[in-house]
Amino acid sequence: MKTNLKTYSGEALEGNFYTIGLNYKKADAEIRGHFSIDDTAKEKILEQGKADGIPSLTVISTCNRTELYGFAQHPYQLIKLLCQYTNGTVEEFEKVAYIYKNRDAVSHLFTVGTGLDSQILGDFEIISQLRNAFRESKKRDMINPFMERLANAVIQASKRIKNETGISSGATSVSFAAVQYIMAHVPQISEKNILLFGTGKIGRNTCENLIKHTKNDHITLVNRTKEKAEKVAGKFNLVVKDYADIQSEIAQADVLIVATGAQQPTISQELLYLNRPLLILDLSIPKNVSDDVLENELVTLVHMDQLSALTDHTLEQRAAQLPLAKKIIAEIEKEFNKWADHRKYAPTINALKNKLIEIKAGELDYQSKKIDGFNQDQAEIISDRLIQKITTHFANHLKGEEGSAESIELIRRVFQLETA
């Protein structure tokens, strides 16, 4: 677990900014499934976080990662929330998790939001998921100015990288990787029967890539809600079958792609009555295909984690764009950190300036009564310049401090400052 002693110490009342989570790098699909969060659980986490006094919180859960971003006095507050509303335990989390604090948490969010931490480099679907997550938090008044500014900065970085680099060139994503795998392992794919079960976002993208790259017109769609499948089928002129027919449809398929959003396996051995080889690709988190399908010797099962190992020319081209993408991130991240630093010491500097103005007013009033011919205007000009120089010196000192919490506190005590 990673933390950093650098702090945005101006957040004394709110705590520190943390990212806690797990992703594909250390957590396999099964473990990620334990910590998968559906829309209902996300809502409950935000509501419970608010009730617990957490001032700012955002939740993201994708097939590759589950993360909470928020302010807390201790990261365990966020870990507890995650485990409370998922099937994962604290012990399980600790084995595969990461914790980032303050600037490290900021850097991590930039890396995630720009697709540099995606399982397939440059997969930009994550930024829309992050945008939606921050939007949901804002609806519930669970975003403070720090996190709102950070979200906007990450979105800006994502847009610039997409527009100014080639890191998003080519159609490489989980869905495209699945199609690449099929094309590499199934001969005469254009003549094979393909069954797509699940027409959510990954299912729709997979369907589009299948049609574009395989030239196959034997694709059948099945979804628990038939109307959703019909909407997708209408766009591509495909066949839709009832969910009740899935067993017979599997028996006729050469390739089965499972992209459902169920929390439990939807495909198991008992559905398989096969007389020909069947390639099954499970693109779901949690896993939606039970491992018992491998008891059937005609089945080959591939999960999305295996698909991420695909390395082709497109990915090599993307990797070459990494230095430019990182340069853009560094530039925008630096601007954000400068704003965050200013935000932490600004109340103290403003309070110091007001204190000096108060002292000035008292002293000028005293001297005007004591000195004959006292020049009030000149005294105002000189004292205002002194106040400006003094506050500028203090501000520059705080800007240059690696950890300025002690300096801020000392200034407050010496000048007896009241800050909001």
UniProtKB/TrEMBL annotation:
Site residues by UniProt (Important for activity): 108
Residue intervals of the Glutamyl-tRNA reductase N-terminal domain: 20-165
Pathway: Porphyrin-containing compound metabolism; protoporphyrin-IX biosynthesis; 5-aminolevulinate from L-glutamyl-tRNA(Glu): step 1/2
GO molecular function: glutamyl-tRNA reductase activity; NADP binding
InterPro entries assigned: 4pyrrol_synth_GluRdtase (IPR000343), 4pyrrol_synth_GluRdtase_dimer (IPR015896), 4pyrrol_synth_GluRdtase_N (IPR015895), GluRdtase_CS (IPR018214), GluRdtase_dimer_dom_sf (IPR036453), GluRdtase_N_sf (IPR036343), NAD(P)-bd_dom_sf (IPR036291), Shikm_DH/Glu-tRNA_Rdtase (IPR006151)
Record: residues binding NADP(+): 198-203
Domain (Tetrapyrrole biosynthesis glutamyl-tRNA reductase dimerisation) ranges: 325-417
Substrates-to-products reaction catalysed: (S)-4-amino-5-oxopentanoate + tRNA(Glu) + NADP(+) = L-glutamyl-tRNA(Glu) + NADPH + H(+)
Keyword terms, alphabetized: NADP, Oxidoreductase, Porphyrin biosynthesis
Binding site for substrate: 62-65, 118, 123-125, 129
PROSITE patterns in the record: GLUTR (PS00747)
Every Quinate/shikimate 5-dehydrogenase/glutamyl-tRNA reductase domain range: 186-308
Any one of the GO BP annotations: protoporphyrinogen IX biosynthetic process from glutamate
Keyword NADP: yes
PANTHER family (UniProt xref): GLUTAMYL-TRNA REDUCTASE (PTHR43013)
Subunit structure: Homodimer.
Assigned protein family: Belongs to the glutamyl-tRNA reductase family.
Function comment: Catalyzes the NADPH-dependent reduction of glutamyl-tRNA(Glu) to glutamate 1-semialdehyde (GSA).
Record's comment describing the protein's domains: Possesses an unusual extended V-shaped dimeric structure with each monomer consisting of three distinct domains arranged along a curved 'spinal' alpha-helix. The N-terminal catalytic domain specifically recognizes the glutamate moiety of the substrate. The second domain is the NADPH-binding domain, and the third C-terminal domain is responsible for dimerization.
Protein name: Glutamyl-tRNA reductase
Organism, scientific name: Aequorivita flava
